[in-house]
Write a structure and sequence with these properties.
This protein is mostly beta strands and 260 residues long. The protein has two helices and 20 strands.
C-alpha cells in the first residue's frame, strides 16, 4: 500500500500505516490501538488539515486531485476553516476530483466515511448540497433541500440521501434523516457490496437497499469531494475510503471518538 502524507511540503512514502506515516500527528486518534483493524482497510484519506485537497493516504498509483473553485466571480479555489479535526473543507467553495482506480473501490466491495456540519441550511425552501459523488453522478451523498410552493404544498422533501445507480441506470436511494441542525457534526458511513448498499448516520444501525442488479464496470466515474455552488453550506471533514464495508462497531468507534 502506498501512502502519501503532506508534512511541511514533504511527501513521506510508506508501505503500511505506521508511526512514520503519522509523523507530525503523534496524538492523532487514528494512532490508538483500537483503530488498527479499521485503518488497515483504508485506501484513501483526505483530512484537509494542511488547507489543501491533497490526500494524506492514497493506495492508487494516480492520486493527485484536480482542484476546482466555486462558481463565484473571482474565486481561486476551495476554502478551509476550523473543522472536526484540524481543518475542514467549506462546502460550496470548490473541491476536487480524484482518480478512483485503486483509491475508491466502487466496482468491488467498500465503504466511505465522512463528517458533515450543516451551515446555512434553510427551510421551507432551499437548494441541494452535495458532499461526495462520482463524476458520472451515479453514486453520491447529498442533502436534498426542501421545496414548498406559494400555497404551502410540498414539492420536494428535505432528506440526506445516499444514491447509487443499477445496471439500468436508475438511481436507488437510501435516506438518512432530515431536519439536520446547523452547527452540529454528523458522521455518514456508506457501505456497498453490490447489488446491496447501506447507510449509517451517527453510529445508528445501517439502512439497506438493493439495486436491480450488479452495476456495470463503466457505471462509475472519478470521486468528487465538495461543490462549486458559491454558497457556503457547511463543512466537510475527515474523508476516508475503505477496501471493504464497515461493521457497525467500527462505525461507532469513529463516531464516539470524534463526535462533538
Amino acid at each position: 500500500m502506498r501512502m502519501r502524507v503532506a508534512l511541511l511540503s514533504v511527501v513521506v512514502l510508506a508501505c503500511r500505516l505506521s508511526d512514520a506515516a503519522w509523523a507530525g500527528q503523534p496524538d492523532s486518534p487514528y494512532m490508538q490501538p483500537t483503530f488498527e483493524r479499521l485503518m488497515d482497510a483504508v485506501t484513501l484519506r483526505v483530512s484537509f488539515d494542511d488547507a489543501s485537497m491533497v490526500p494524506e493516504m492514497a493506495e492508487g498509483d494516480e492520486h493527485q486531485p484536480n482542484v476546482f473553485a466555486s462558481s463565484s466571480k473571482g474565486a481561486t479555489g476551495p476554502r478551509f476553516a476550523e473543522g472536526l479535526v484540524g481543518r475542514a473543507l467549506v462546502l460550496g467553495t470548490g473541491g476536487a476530483t480524484y482518480p478512483r482506480k485503486g483509491n475508491v473501490l466502487l466496482e468491488r466491495r467498500g465503504a466511505i466515511a465522512v463528517w458533515v456540519r450543516p451551515e446555512g441550511w434553510q427551510r421551507p425552501n432551499d437548494h441541494n448540497t452535495v458532499f461526495a459523488m462520482t463524476s458520472r453522478a451515479t453514486f453520491y451523498l447529498q442533502r436534498q433541500g426542501p421545496a414548498v410552493d406559494k400555497d404551502g404544498r410540498v414539492r420536494r422533501h428535505e432528506a440526506v440521501q445516499y444514491l447509487a445507480a443499477g445496471p439500468d441506470g436508475q438511481l436507488t436511494c437510501i435516506t438518512g434523516g432530515s431536519d439536520w441542525a446547523n452547527g452540529r457534526w454528523y458522521l455518514l458511513v456508506a457501505n456497498w457490496s453490490w447489488p446491496t448498499f447501506e447507510l449509517s448516520v451517527n453510529g445508528q444501525p445501517f439502512k439497506g437497499r438493493s439495486l436491480s442488479g450488479m452495476p456495470k464496470p463503466e457505471t462509475f466515474g472519478n470521486l468528487v469531494l465538495g461543490a462549486r455552488s458559491g454558497q457556503k453550506r457547511g463543512l466537510l471533514d475527515e474523508f476516508l475510503a475503505f477496501r471493504r464495508p464497515l461493521a457497525l462497531d467500527e462505525v461507532r468507534l469513529l463516531h464516539t471518538t470524534f463526535k462533538r
